[in-house]
Write a structure and sequence with these properties.
The chain is mainly β. The protein has one domain. It is built from no helices and 5 strands. It has a 3-stranded antiparallel beta sheet with strand order 1-4-5, with no helix packed on it. A two-stranded antiparallel ribbon has the order 2-3. Strand 2 and strand 3 form a beta hairpin.
Length: 75
């Protein structure tokens, strides 16, 4: 399934020389909402019985591409 969701911003993690990561909250000063495309799917865990309520798993991903604006400065 494909779903598009709006958000006010998102976090991008910047790697430092000492191996730590610094969270950077990115948002647009011009637009109140940003759009994201993502994929998700519910699927049954074959290891669990059919009547187990924990059987259904959710997997998801956010689709990304190379940035075309100032958001691309975080590495």
């Amino acid at each position: 399934m494909i779903r598009e969701n709006p958000a006010e911003g998102y976090y991008e993690w910047q790697k430092t020389d000492n191996g730590k990561k610094i969270p950077n909250y990115l948002f647009s000063e011009k637009e109140p909402l940003l759009g994201f495309a993502g994929l998700y799917e519910f699927w049954p865990d074959p290891e669990l019985p059919k009547d187990d309520p924990e059987r259904w798993l959710l997997t998801c991903t956010v689709v990304t591409t190379t940035t075309q604006d100032a958001f691309g400065h975080v590495i």
